[in-house]
Amino acid sequence: TGGKDRRSGLILTIPLCLEQTSMDELSVTLDYLLSIPSEKCKARGFTVIVDGRKSQWNVVKTVVLMLQNVVPAEVSLVCVVKPDEFWDKKVTHFCFWKEKDRLGFEVILVSANKLTRYIEPCQLTEDFGGTLTYDHMDWLNKRLVFEKFTKESTSLLDELALINNGSDKGTQQEKERSIDLNFLPSVDPETVLQTGHELLSELQQRRFNGSDGGVSWSPMDDELLAQPQVMKLLDSLREQYTRYQEVCRQRSKRTQLEEIQQKVMQVVNWLEGPGSEQLRTQWGIGDSIRASQALQQKHEEIESQHSEWFAVYVELNQQIAALLNAGDEEDLVELKALQQQLSDVCYRQASQLEFRQNLLQAALEFHSVAQDLSQQLDGLLGMLCVDVAPADGASIQQTLKLLEEKLKSVDLGLQGLREKGQSLLDQISNQASWAYGKDVTIENKENVDHIQGVMEDMQLRKQRCEDMVDVRRLKMLQMVQLFKCEEDAAQAVEWLSELLDALLKTHTRLGDDAQETKVLLEKHRKFVDVAQSTYDYGRQLLQATVVLCQSLRCTSRSSGDTLPRLNRVWKQFTVTSEERVHRLETAVAFHSSAEKILQDCPEHPEAFSEEEQFDEIEAVGKSLLDRLTVPVVYPDGSEQYFGSPSDMASAAEHIREKMKLVSLKKQQLRQPEPTTPES
């Protein structure tokens, strides 16, 4: 179980059962168990626990006597665990302690609950009241795995050694024959190695982690030689397996080298033969998009044929690189030469294909840009040939913006055409560098003349459109200005109408005293100045509209009724403003006179001797009240009141209150002064 006695000797437990026990099987089992520990461990001796609680006395006695023959030297103590009901004394008259010298070890009879007198509880399993964790089935499974691994690894080591040693001796033919006959071992080395690593990991985990937080249980620890044996076998397997892999690699490398040499020559012969001949026949760039696309399609067919050989090249290059990384020195020179030859031919052919593809793509882009630019010029010319029908300023602005955008697009298109054309010319000038000695001057001249002719034609068409755009732009800007003046004039009328509406609805207060009324009068004059500026601004805009109409030789559709509307609103504003000024001036006179009478000192009654002053104030107040009820009459006969009736009622009530104060003051002055006793 992994438990140890107080002398650090291992504890061997023999559980006996009710069934008949085979002494032969027990002897074989004990021989097997005693073969597991190391010699150092055996030297410390064993303590044997014979569990006879479920067996008969004669069986127990036979087992104890058998220990003398199986392990006499190693056994130091035998503990016979007796049942609760002890055997009959007649049966148990045999005294083991008297036979100690003959047996070679001490035998004691002990109950299970008293076994801890001889062995620590932590070294006993739960069957004997101890705390040592032990699972016999788990130990048995691990031992079977260990035995299987030992057997397979030993057999595999012999096979691998035979294969590896055979590959190191004899001639090349003998070496190949040895490898062919013994190339595959009977078991998979990877599987055996994995099994060994898992077993070692399990043993180490149990050794260091213990079980459920208790005392570590290690019945297969270093003393039982499990871990050292597994580690030693794993090291040997890894060494032989590495040599075996090297043997396989060498064989595979030699086969690969022969295949690579054959494939390299196939690739080189095709690329330098049929592949190069296909490229020699392709030189033109086409004179239109369709022609360039047809040439591209033909080139794609050529590339497709080359791609199959390039795929072979990539595969060969990877194989050569792998052999170079793991090859022998005698193969390096040959491999590098093959790789260099293959790379030179493939890169040269790929460069030619790429150059041809770039040239055709540049030609297609040039013709595409030329076609787009031609369509843009046609669209711009179509816009310029249609007369401008004035609708409103926004539509004219939109049309002008569209015209400018089209012209800008044409400029960008022509610039892009020049760039594409110059790039294409540069590529054509480099075309002769890989012409295999073929004279392509004539074909290049045709291509160059075509490219330059297209660019010059587009430049002339663009210049004609620019001249027409300048004339159209001037006319459209004048039309935009005309509509802008008309819109601003109409806006001035709206602003003036809003000022008139604000004057009638919000300018209703007359002030609570003379000072406030003067402030309102000053604000009103500034308000009138704003209205005057608005009216003048509208008149100026309408005058500019007349001048623009004469320049464009057209009649404005909106300015005809704007001037009468402007004059009508201005006259209404003028009449309303004058009425507002008259009311404020009357209110100033009324408040000034009333405040003078009400604020003068009553010790000087001579200042109020004339009743004309009171009558004048009363007359001014009544006149002001009467004006508050009278509407503003415009030149066209229409009428309009200031503010709402409640606003006018509030203003009138304040005037009446002040008139009452003046009247009360008048009555106070009329009363004679009371006589004093001295008078």
From TrEMBL:
Q: What is this protein called?
A: SESD1 protein
Q: Give the taxonomic lineage as stored in the record.
A: Eukaryota, Metazoa, Chordata, Craniata, Vertebrata
- The encoding gene is Sestd1
Keyword set, alphabetical order: Repeat
Superkingdom of origin? Eukaryota
Q: Which Pfam families match?
A: CRAL_TRIO_2 (PF13716), Spectrin_SESTD1 (PF24915)
Task: Give all residue intervals belonging to the CRAL-TRIO domain.
Answer: 1-136
Gene3D superfamilies, per the entry: 1.20.58.60
Matching SMART domains? SPEC
This entry's Gene Ontology molecular function terms read: phosphatidylinositol-3,4-bisphosphate binding; phosphatidylinositol-3,5-bisphosphate binding; phosphatidylinositol-3-phosphate binding; phosphatidylinositol-4,5-bisphosphate binding; phosphatidylinositol-4-phosphate binding; phosphatidylinositol-5-phosphate binding
Asked if Repeat is a keyword of the record, the answer is yes
Q: Please give the SUPFAM superfamilies that the UniProt record associates with this protein.
A: Spectrin repeat
**Per the similarity annotation, which family is this?**
Belongs to the SOLO family.
Organism name = Ramphastos sulfuratus
